[in-house]
TrEMBL record:
<protein>
    <submittedName>
        <fullName>Glutamyl endopeptidase, chloroplastic isoform X1</fullName>
    </submittedName>
</protein>
Amino acid sequence: MSLPKVYHRFSLLSLHSPKTLFFSSSLPLAVKRLPSPPLLRAHSRRFVTGKQFKAKSAMASSRFHLVVPVNALAIEDGGNGSGSNGAANATASVAYDDDLESASETGYRLPPREIRDIVDAPPLPALSFSPLRDKILFLKRRSLPPLSDLARPEEKLAGVRIDGKCNTRSRMSFYTGIGIHHLMEDGSLGPEKEIQGLPEGARINFLTWSNNGQHLAFTVRLDEDDGSSSKLRVWVANVDTGKARPLFESPDIYVNAVFDNFVWVNDSTLLVCTIPLSRGDPPRKPLVPSGPKIQSNEQKNVIQSRTYQDLLKDEYDEDLFEYYATTQLVLASLDGEIKPFGPPAIYTSMDPSPDQAYILLTSTHRPFSFVVPCGRFPKKVEVWKANGEFVRELCDFPLAENIPIAFNSVRKGMRSINWRADKPSNLYWVETQDGGDAKVEVSPRDIIYTQSAAPHENEHPKILHKLDLRYGGISWCDDTLALVYESWYKTRKVRTWVISPGSENVNPRILFDRSSEDVYSDPGSPMSRRTPAGTYVIAKVKKEDDGDTYLLLNGSGATPEGNIPFLDLFDINTGSKERIWQSNREKYFETVVALMSDQKEGELSINKLKILTSKESKTENTQYYLLSWPEKKACQITNFPHPYPQLESLQKEMIRYQRKDGVQLTATLYLPPGYDPSRDGPLPCLVWSYPGEFKSKDAASQVRGSPNEFAGIGPTSPLLWLARRFAVLSGPTIPIIGEGDEEANDRYIEQLVASAEAAVEEVIRRGVADPNKIAVGGHSYGAFMTANLLAHAPHLFCCGIARSGAYNRTLTPFGFQNEERTLWEATNTYVEMSPFMSANKIKKPILLIHGEEDNNPGTLMMQSDRFFNALKGHGALCRLVILPYESHGYGARESIMHVLWETDRWLQKHCAYSSDVKADLNACKDNAEGTVDSQSKAVGAAGGVQELANLDDDKFHSIRRFHGDKLPGDEARSH
């Protein structure tokens, strides 16, 4: 598997970043979405569009560092991604009503217009550079999809969701058109040339360049009369003429894209996964089962697995999975010749060798499993010649149900089988020496092997390197240089080794040995260049004055003042560095995106170096530049408009403050345009966060991110409430630290509350947040955080919003998040961390939102349903919103708009305009820390002054938060 194919595994991230840049055919990166401007004020009127909606069941979430391939714009769980702009043709009832008591009415609602206009803005196109860096594609996209797209029937099989009509993953996004621009020498773009010949309404997916940059290949599907999509067909387009046509003349050949789809074998031939022509109708579910559903462990094997969703349930599901996943590979040339390749099988990946002589095929087969997803099914890896001739079988793994749940545990046997990027057709792989069990102490733990694709007789695999930690990948350069990475989660240790693959007499040496949590010490990663074979290897740069060879290290440049990205010339032999570029630290946040001067073979000259950079500031959205040496002249190649001019002057500040145990914390504070705390006073405030685990206080205290990054606002971002005149505290760090032998979660509640207290005290100290009007919210693990804070720190927040969370950890007994101990190994931790167990303590209003089809491990919809019933059973003020057809992230326009309406209503009613201005002190007495106890009842009463004067500082300041800056005990305490 070549390096570009590794990125294919990140395809599910593609729609969580609304604007996307793709570098060549296979090294893309996702960047921010730029929505259109909002209106500043909502209209105080009510309107209804569409027909009344009746839900019917189907019959059948920074930045460009998210690497997503242009040939895989697809997503299973909806996410926050692209879709249809508006839902005029949907059957949902959509209404907006700013009457806060109208929540009992049914139907989908719309949020205020200033929020709605930001979300409804058409997305900017994705960009893709040609292999020769001389052309850029503008891949056009739609906005949010209608709910009818998500309502299409899907099969949930073996951990994947399949659209049976298209025979692909369900809920794929798509491009709507392709524009080609020439990149001029001065960095400007030539006029756009549209790809011609596509059918009207074409939905485009899986776009890739041929290696010579002369052709594009992609799939096309169309909407049908019944609202479904047609099956996918492969199309090709000539980049020079812009003309597109179907690859297959026969209308009966369709793509099977449940796993892989197609790949260029050479510049004129593709290997395509097709639906077998002999395949009949799907298997029918028997009316009467053949017998009971039985699972057995009579051999007493230890089989522990997390709470995977969408698993196979019975023999019918097994047959259905095999039906949809089975592929017939076909070799298809651009001149129309087609040839079957190998037997039908469930092929999960296909990777041509760099010299285009061989194909590495991976397939899965029976027996399947009812307890683990398809990634652990039996797997076979084979080598074939590119002409369809079988060469050899590398391995055939058995079913892997019993991989230990401890982090760094892996499958037994060969794994990570790939082609060397620097060789014509050499394979490499890793084999574990500990049986895959991270708890087994052994040295070495992993061994890396290499061998030619078709070895001669008696040619055995060669040991390339031995590792004591877990293998983490290789960056290839040539026979004299490769970098090998290893890591260990328990200690957070990461190492980088320098090896010479072609020299057995050169000993490996450690280049970097550091903690993965220590971002300040990160030296950066070597930049890669594209080879003529289309693979990526470490770029070598030569300085003309000394003749030495250097690497380019591209780093994020984390500092106590924020990230300051850099590019270093690095001498691999001496370890010396020379900084040749660095981001402007005063106003801008700039990053190195890709190397652009790698079209020719050999070492690169520093004086001919050309890189692609991005540049943004607090008020200026991301633009892209070509930076050329030796003058380092920057040519701007994009000119995207500001997405929301009305919020252009929003105020952003990265703030630092301290937790009571001395841990330094950071957050990003956003304030509305024109806000002046001395003139306008404190605002209602929304705190939105997500906890993280650390092994040291020093690492937890380090600053991550940049104060100069542009404030991109996604469809469900908390920053939308800047348009509603809220202060927003985004991403306050919530470090859960377990130093030494201590596990972080053993003091989860204590550290969670301490972090939240520090954040709240800081925004109150600054005078920007009303202490009685601070709301907390989060998604997924952030929802878990929200519920726990309302249970254990009710003195901090007036209400909470919890989306798609898990609240009862006993329902995830074999680990969750970064907890690798089981329920039976850490019973107290599981119980104490579960807000479900503290439902009786939650007295503040909490809004629960969940997708009905959540497929995220551990956050099945039942979690919110049972938590709501527990809250209701104790008389809590709570509301549960279940979104039909939605998964862990929300994708449909109707759903997202309704989530925003629910959230805005909750914030307006229980935060901004709460009738209960004074705190409910009785509700606070149940918090675990006892921060506010029965003594708080004395506030304002006779004798209250003395009681307040006698309270300890923590209790006193907790009460003060509910009563403003002045309390009757202040004067007494000052003496």
